[in-house]
UniProtKB/TrEMBL annotation:
<dbReference type="InterPro" id="IPR036291">
    <property type="entry name" value="NAD(P)-bd_dom_sf"/>
</dbReference>
<dbReference type="InterPro" id="IPR002328">
    <property type="entry name" value="ADH_Zn_CS"/>
</dbReference>
<dbReference type="GO" id="GO:0016491">
    <property type="term" value="F:oxidoreductase activity"/>
</dbReference>
<comment type="similarity">
    <text>Belongs to the zinc-containing alcohol dehydrogenase family.</text>
</comment>
<dbReference type="InterPro" id="IPR020843">
    <property type="entry name" value="ER"/>
</dbReference>
<dbReference type="Pfam" id="PF08240">
    <property type="entry name" value="ADH_N"/>
</dbReference>
<dbReference type="InterPro" id="IPR011032">
    <property type="entry name" value="GroES-like_sf"/>
</dbReference>
<protein>
    <submittedName>
        <fullName>Iditol 2-dehydrogenase</fullName>
    </submittedName>
</protein>
<keyword id="KW-0479">Metal-binding</keyword>
<dbReference type="InterPro" id="IPR050129">
    <property type="entry name" value="Zn_alcohol_dh"/>
</dbReference>
<dbReference type="InterPro" id="IPR013149">
    <property type="entry name" value="ADH-like_C"/>
</dbReference>
<keyword id="KW-0560">Oxidoreductase</keyword>
<dbReference type="InterPro" id="IPR013154">
    <property type="entry name" value="ADH-like_N"/>
</dbReference>
<feature type="domain" description="Enoyl reductase (ER)">
    <location>
        <begin position="8"/>
        <end position="346"/>
    </location>
</feature>
<keyword id="KW-0862">Zinc</keyword>
<dbReference type="Pfam" id="PF00107">
    <property type="entry name" value="ADH_zinc_N"/>
</dbReference>
<dbReference type="GO" id="GO:0008270">
    <property type="term" value="F:zinc ion binding"/>
</dbReference>
Length: 350
């Protein structure tokens, strides 16, 4: 079958891979109809390289059920599904405690096990969630990044009437954070990014105000847009050392910051920003993965519901649709950053 395999930093190859086969009675094989490039994929592609050199990569995908094991009861051949990439040992203490996102054994497909950048993928039955017939596969392949955001918001005390600042609002996670904040009932959503074109998309998806941090003072503008109070909730979705070290300055006293982005580098916090945690008595929430109990969690069913009723708009987020064999060149284009590239959806089937 056709696939994309990651061998090392900036070494992604379009190659043949062995088609998966049923081994366990709970196995399900899915024919991948659409798969997406994640921001975390770019970090690994650029800096970290392959977890397992030559492994089929990718963790955002959707498709049709092709085969089911003899013990599978919830799925049948032909069902449309989105795939949860989290792999967890069911004997793990945190999994048994109903906290799968904290499991020591938690890993993701595309690392040790084959991922979704391929024509077919095999996972346990529990890792697939049915999607309605009228939800397109492009959207279904984006259920996973939406669940990452929703899992983070569930960690907070966000409520109707709150003001929310989203840093890194132009990426997939940030744009979902904008939309979910509105669904949760946020009064004012303030999108912060360094790209005016992406900020325009954030505004089209519900952001009330936008701030380009390259040429505007974010501290000043956030205060201006919130009547001098700052935000109830600040979302760090950029995943850079700079943004991770400064987001505390945008929260109101008694407010909170939730971290969704992954810096992949050391974070040094200036005293001014660190003291905001203390002097403003902030709550800081870490958020990891996209799952809860019962696995994979209400993040998945809730996302599918709001995608299906069009409260979550994925179409404005997608800028490129390409065949899978163009994937390596697309990753290089993403590295160059010479053009607006939002969500990229790839299609394994020629």
């Amino acid at each position: 079958m056709n696939s994309l395999k990651l061998y090392g930093a900036r070494d992604l190859r379009y190659e043949e891979a062995e088609k998966p086969r049923l081994v366990d009675g709970k196995d399900v094989i899915v024919k991948v109809k659409a798969c997406g490039i994640c921001g975390s994929d770019m970090s690994r592609y650029k800096k970290m390289g392959a977890h397992t050199p030559g492994q089929v990569w990718g963790h955002e995908f959707a498709g049709n059920v092709e085969q089911v094991g003899e013990e599978v009861t919830s799925l049948k051949v032909g069902d449309r599904v989105a795939g949860c990439p989290a792999l967890i040992d069911e004997d793990d203490y945190y999994y048994r405690a109903g906290q799968p996102a904290r499991a020591d054994s938690l890993s993701a497909i595309g690392a040790k096990e084959p991922g979704g950048f391929a024509e077919y993928i095999k996972l346990p039955e529990k890792n697939f969630v049915k999607v309605p017939d009228d939800l397109d596969f492009d959207s279904a392949s984006m259920v996973e990044p939406s669940t990452v955001v929703l899992h983070g918001y569930y960690r907070t005390n966000l409520t109707v009437g709150d003001d929310v600042v989203i840093v890194g609002a132009g990426g997939t996670i940030g744009l979902f954070a904008v939309q979910w904040a509105k669904i949760f009932g946020a009064k004012r959503v303030i999108a912060v990014d360094i790209d005016d074109e992406k900020l325009q998309i954030a505004q089209e998806l519900g952001a009330d105000y936008t701030i380009n941090s390259l040429n505007e003072d974010v501290l000043v503008k956030v205060a201006e847009y919130t009547d001098g109070m700052n935000a109830d909730i600040v979302v760090e979705a950029a995943g850079t050392p700079i943004t991770a070290s400064t987001v505390f300055g945008y929260a109101k006293k008694g407010g909170g910051v939730v971290f969704l982005g992954i810096p992949y580098a050391d974070v040094a916090i200036e005293r001014f920003y660190f003291e905001k945690i203390l002097r403003s008595e902030l709550t800081v929430w870490g958020s990891w993965s996209c799952v809860s109990a019962p696995f994979p969690g209400k993040e998945w069913s809730t996302t599918i519901h709001f995608m299906n009723n069009k409260r979550l708009n994925t179409e404005k987020m997608i800028t490129h649709r390409i065949p899978l064999d163009k994937g390596p060149k697309m990753f290089e284009r993403l590295m160059e950053r010479k053009e607006l590239i939002g969500k990229v959806i790839m299609y394994p089937e020629k």
